[in-house]
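As noted in the main text, all predictions were made from sequence alone. Below is one such record, for Cation transporter.
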Amino acid sequence: MSDTHPSEERYRTTRRVTLVGAATNASLATAQVVGGFLAQSQALIADGVHTLSDLLSDFMVLFAARKANAPADDNHPYGHARIETLATVIVGLALIGVALGIALDAFRRLQSPEELLSPAPAALALAALAIISKEGLYHYTVRAARRIDSSLLHANAWHHRSDVVSSLVVLVGIGATLAGFAFMDAVAAVLVALLISLMGAKLIWNSVSELIDTGVGPEEQQQMLDSVRHLDGIHGVHELRTRRMGSALLADVHIMVGPRISVSEGHRISESVAKTLRQSRPELREVLVHVDPEDDRTHAPSSHLPCRSELMRQLNLQWQSVPGALPLDNVVLHYLDGRIHLELHLSPENFETLEGARALARQLTRVTREVKGVGEVIVYFR
Ligand SMILES: [Zn+2]
Ligand SMILES: [Zn+2]
Ligand SMILES: [Zn+2]
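Prediction:
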């Protein structure tokens, strides 16, 4: 059921895009931090540290993508997609920690103005370089994210874009400091820190809502129900539940089928339901279909009735009073509307006349109906 090809392609794309992002961020972080020290700009250093933490997050993403792609095993029957979720939380926490460090340093300098730095014009050029490379990364990453529909790469792409905002703030801060507003470089550093922590909070929020099993929205839910409602053999669908696991979706659903069809036909119908749902939503990894012979939305009408062994014990006691009826072992049970409906199959060879067979059928039906819970009784000769 698990087709390895698309997930292999997902992994390759995720890895390539992430490696390009990591290489770009590595060069940029070095340029920003070294340049920030040489050109004396706290905002530029802050942005460089931010870029460094992006590098860390890129490696986390790469690691998570490989782990999350590992096939299901005995201990992890639903696969490993949640590793992706956990990695996202860790990256989010790291971003908040980094932001806090930068903001505290900038506040300290703002309180003692003699510690404020005075950036050189080269810092301005480095801020511009950062803007250009991060905007480029955004476009590159978002294209790949759309192609393989990866929420992880989407998050990364938007991260690159928010990095552009951060570098713009740095550009303005350095520009203003050069123009004579000495405190603006530190103010820019605080703003950068704020952006970093917002990003971290958002990553954590998304992952937590996935961990508490947020399903698809009501419209998507309706679309999924509609896609199977008119399949062959379906009398109704209800109780569709979905939940996300990394980029995968899991679903379970109840279908109503003809109340007297065989178990194997019901199973066949449930297979076509699972297949149709997976075709309509490619990210659907597992579908569990529950087959209902009757509507069980408000109550379970037949759950109080005895199972086969107990019922057969009672029936056999009754049937002993009908000469020529036993052994009777071809008995089909239908649990419907809170009663058990029986089909009794008898062999015609046992009867010399049609009249004799009819008389036995009448007698059998009468005594069978005396058993508690029994509804309609039909006797077949074949
Ligand atoms: Zn960033
Ligand atoms: Zn099955
Ligand atoms: Zn149901």
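The chain has three domains: 4-211, 218-292, 308-381. The chain is about 60% helix and 15% strand. These features were considered when defining construct boundaries for the mutagenesis experiments described in Section 2.9.
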